[in-house]
Amino acid sequence: MTKRAINLRGLQTRVAFIVLAISLLFAIGTTLTQMYINYQRALTTTTQLVESRSQNSARVISHALWIVDLELVRRRVKGLAMTPTVCRVDVTGFDGTTVTEVNHTSRHCDANHQALLSVQGNNIGTLNIVLDHSEVKREALSSIVPIAAVHFTETLMISLLILWVLNRLCSRPLKQLATTLDYYQADRISQSSVPIQLIQRNDEIGKVSRSINSLQSRIKDDLLQKRITERELRQHQTLLEEQVEQRTKALNWQSNASSLLADISIQFLRADSQHITEDVELIFPQMASLLGVEAIGWYAFDSNRAERRCYWPEEADFAPKTVDLSDMHMIKRWLADTDTLVVPHVGQLGDDAMNERSWLRQRHILSFAAFPLTDGRKSFGMITVANRQLPFIWDNNKTLLLKRFATAISEVMIRERNHFAMEQLQEELIAANEKLKVQAETDDLTRLSTRRPFKRELKSHIRHGIENDLPVAVMMIDVDHFKAYNDEYGHLKGDDVLTKIARVLLKQPQAFQGSVARFGGEEFAITLSTHYASQLHALADAIHDDIAALGLTHAKNPDGKTITVSIGGIILQPTDETTDSYLLEMADQRLYQAKEEGRNRINILDRHHQK
Question: Which of 6, 84, 323, 393 shows the greatest Cβ crowding within 10 Å of its Cβ?
């Protein structure tokens, strides 16, 4: 730990300033309080003295005024005016007599004392004494000066004593503790920096000393742990460098494998089944080098035999052209599962693969792996790799590489076979498209037609009506207050209501060769064959009654407590200017009028007699 300058002078100065300031404020407060008490006491004494003298003088002045002895009145008034705290004395008789005496030594008159003059129960005048309290204040102030001096002296002595005690009890131990901390070095594990006498104290400094000692112990422990951690990190760094090196090699291998697979994919995309063997023979040396194997081959299955298509190296005498798989039950199970087969060492084969183990040992094959060529259902060939000198060093990356290679070869072999099935697939695709078209034009919920086929049917009716001079009819149906129904019962219940209404709409128009469609949300549309267009009124009444007969509860319907519908429609004689959009708009306007008129009603415009 580096040396730090811990300066306590600022703290001592602040403490001294605070103590002196508090002591000074206390002394000033005490002095002012004492001065106020002396002033009030002197003021009370003076007032009582004036009241006593005024009462005595009032009797004499009253008698003098009664006998009209003005000289006696003036003497008494003058005697009162000579009192130090009296500023002026006024005697006023009710007969108009006035005597005033002023004390010229007084300068501040700030209080009045008035008495009534009476003789034998008769009021004959008033005695008014104006007082000067500034004299009282001067006397109170002069008496407080010695007291203030005593208070300030006591305050100074007490402050010095407090500072001395504070220095002995706090400042000096803190300086000692600060000096100790300045020279503390955490790397000296055996060092004990806090003096024992400070630790053994039972006051706050002792608590701080013990906390610092404990903190230093933790710092030492942390330092030891840090050194241990640094040593472990160096070890981990070495391991990490080894792992990075291994990972780099693995990434380089994966990069080479990905590049090879990309080249194979491009080559196989351009190839056909007639030249696939030559293409695979060119790829085998690179694949064997990347996998680190001694031999690699391609076999095709024919019943219970495996026919060799190509092999690397070509001079390998341990790879027969035909392998009989009749007694190799493990191979058959593997082919049935269309999974990979990896045998790092032939000795690992169990008793259920005795024939396979014997066949491999006869050819001195130490390690063996096979990857099926499959169309997803069954295997029609396999890619094999083998080692005779050393066991496999195998991992999942090599397995994945060979799987993708086998898949690429399988795709080429499947491509030709799929070509013959293309025509049949196209026919099936046409049928599927027709089916999808029907599904696209059918509402998923109600199974009714959607807007597009309905408009095609309506256009057909318009053309037929023009050609045969027959009317065209369109009707729009809307469920009343359906949003309130969904809010009250939920959308699933709302879908159930729409399904039940759709069944009614499908049933009724059948007698009139009509078409029904869901136009969106709770709105439906119906158009009738031109031969039955004039029957739109009857159809609307039947639909309205059948839906009412369902009795579907709708507590939020202000027009009733069941589900109701509003119906609008139009019947007219079409012309060359008549369009499907015009008919739908007119029917929608009638539906809007039915809703405006109060809902749960039918509004159909019949204009088929108008040309």
Answer: 323
pLDDT at 100: 83
CA gap 288, 401 in Å, rounded: 11
pLDDT, one tens digit per residue, over 219-258 is: 888 888 888 988 889 888 888 888 888 888 888 888 888 8
d(CA 405, CA 486): 58
The model carries a pTM of: 0.36
Catalogue the E-assigned strands of 521-583: 523-528, 565-572
In angstroms, rounded to a whole number, what is the distance separating the alpha carbons of residues 173 and 179?
10
Which positions ≥6 away from 487 have C-beta within 8 Å?
556
Distances in whole angstroms, Cα of residue 430 to Cα of each of 174, 343, 425, 427, 443: 98, 48, 9, 5, 22
pLDDT digits (tens, 9 = 90+) for 350-359: 888 888 888 8
Q: What are phi and psi of 372, to 5 degrees?
A: -75, 145
Per the structure block, which two tokens stand in for 6?
């811990």
Residues whose CB falls within 8 Å of the CB of residue 467, separated by 6 or more in sequence, listed in order? none
Helix pair angle (491-507, 482-489), 10° resolution: 130
Looking at the chain, the whole-number percentage of residues with pLDDT higher than 70 is: 87
Helices (H), 67-183: 70-81, 134-166, 172-182
Using CA atoms, how far apart are residues 455 and 478, in angstroms rounded to an integer? 18
pLDDT at site 105: 65
Which DSSP state fits 348?
A: G
Q: How confident is the model at residue 523 (pLDDT cuts 50, 70, 90)?
A: very high
| Residue 388 burial (CB count, 10 A) | 14
Place of tokens 């013990």: 210
Distance CA(592)–CA(442), nearest Å, equals: 26
* pLDDT of the residue at 420: 62
Pick from 161, 209, 200, 156: which is nearest to 181 by CA? 209
| DSSP codes, 217-237 | HHHHHHHHHHHHHHHHHHHHH
DSSP assignment of 263-309 equals HHHHHHHH--TTSHHHHHHHHHHHHHHHHT-SEEEEEEEETTEEEEE
- What are all long-range contacts of 410-416, with beta carbons under 8 Å and residues at least 24 apart? 410/373, 410/374, 410/375, 410/380, 410/381, 411/268, 412/268, 412/271, 412/272, 412/273, 412/276, 413/273, 413/276, 413/373, 413/380, 413/381, 414/375, 415/273, 416/272, 416/273
Cβ atoms within 10 Å of 34's Cβ, excluding its own: 16
Lowest mean pLDDT among 125-134, 135-144, 335-344, 592-601: 135-144
Over the stretch 31-53, which tens digit does the pLDDT of each residue have? 778 777 777 777 777 777 777 77
Q: In the sheet where 565-572 sits, what is the strand order?
A: 515-520, 523-528, 472-479, 565-572, 602-607
Beta partners for 527?
474, 515
Name the residue with higher pLDDT: 467 or 334.
467
Kindly report whether the peptide bond that precedes residue 313 is cis, defined as omega within 30 degrees of 0.
Answer: yes
Q: What is the number of alpha carbons within 13 Å of residue 445 lying toward its C-beta?
A: 19
Counting other chains too, the contacts that 267-270 makes at CB distance below 8 Å and 24 or more residues apart are 268/408, 268/409, 268/411, 268/412
